[in-house]
Amino acid sequence: MELQNVRSTVTKSLLLAKSLLFDPEFFWYTATCLLLGEAVLNVLIIKYVSFTEIDWQAYMQEVSIFLNGERDYTNLVGDTGPCVYPAGFVYVYSALYYLSSGGANIRKVQYIFAIVYLWTLYVVFNLYRRSRQIPPYVLIFICVSKRLHSIYVLRLFNDVIAMTLLYTCMWAMIEKRWKLSCVIYSLALSIKMNVLLFFPAFGVLLFKSLGTWRTLAHLTLILLVQVILAYPFLVTYPRSYIGRAFEFSRVFTYKWTVNWKFFDEETFINTGFSNVLLIGHGFVLMTFLFRRWCRTDGGVLPLLFRGFFWRREDIFRQSKAVTADRKDLYYQFDVMAIIEYCWNVYPSTSKSSLILFASHLIVLTGLWSGDSE
User: pTM of this prediction?
Assistant: First the structure.
């Protein structure tokens, strides 16, 4: 009888484990367990793993100059060079400056970033949950990234704040909160300019959901938030602010590139190489725009025409979240593991960069072959 009870308990435990891993109905049970586990893990990382000083002191030096009354962006300079981030960055890290006693109490800031990390996970879990097909075990892959834990709680990069806001913006979009999503997108952009890379897809979704005139109104809202945040700089040294915060001509340091180490430094810093990358990026975007993103609308031109005669009942008719199908998602997680490996190679090598480049091509292929509508 006792053996039978043991077998029954084991069977129930295995069934529960199977449900927690594979049954979408158990999604939030698994997600909650992972969030609790991540909370404990982040505390342990902060307590036992040494903080990695890369940009923190430079951030503190830059915002301390701002807090002392300087409004000329060219004078906001730290050990790593001038401040090259928009106004939102200055405000966020000014707050952290006060909370950390001038940047000295790093441990307190690490715990703040751990909370930001948990919020990011929660938002991303919500994005995944909307598919209602993704099995819970997929969430485990999100939580095992060494690099994510590193940049959130060991390096305190501003990328963390920007991407957390961007994911929150995506969540607001899925919930059809377009004004809110635009405000949050603009806040993300105010932290780091690379958020502009997400704008083409963001703009297409806005247009397909709201039509021409409401899209223009929402884009104006994005611009308005930028102006409000940058006001102290725009009314004093506008050219200095725009030139630094949105400096498109800035050349990335070859030492830190992860993507392009299979080229030599001379090629990497060459203007022609930058132009080729820019043209290639534009070509990929245009290809997706004309051949994938607007297929069910009859193409870009019919969509543009209808956008001028948008009717309220057309809202969200075509604004499904851009996700690949389940089969694509599974194999892409294998690719994501390879990408994680490439980013953890330090210093990056020609081999790691080539592998990363190939992985990105595979992801693009998956997006092309999946349901990009």
Answer: 0.87
Q: What is the pLDDT of residues 161-181, one digit of tens each?
A: 999 999 999 999 999 999 999
Residue 333: what pLDDT?
53
Whether 38 and 117 have beta carbons less than 8 Å apart is answered as yes
Q: What is the pLDDT of residue 308?
A: 65
| Contact predicate 93/59, CB 8 Å | yes
Question: Is 321 a domain residue?
Answer: yes
Q: How large a percentage of the chain has pLDDT more than 90?
A: 51
Give the chain's domain count: 2
- Within a domain: 39: yes
Same domain, 224 and 342: no
Write down the H helix ranges in the chain: 2-22, 27-48, 56-67, 87-99, 106-129, 138-143, 146-149, 158-174, 178-189, 199-234, 238-245, 265-268, 271-288, 300-307, 326-344, 350-369
Domain identity same for 294 and 230: no
Distances (CA, A) of 26 to 98, 122, 172: 42, 15, 24
DSSP conformation letters of 135-155: -TTHHHHHHT-HHHHIIIIIS
Q: Are 74 and 47 in contact (CB under 8 A)?
A: no
Q: Which domain holds residue 289?
A: 256-373
Residues 94 and 168 occupy one common structural domain: yes
Task: Please indicate, yes or no, whether residues 294 and 197 belong to a single structural domain of this protein.
Answer: no
282 and 241, same structural domain? no
Task: With beta carbons less than 8 A apart as the criterion, state whether 141 and 337 touch.
Answer: yes
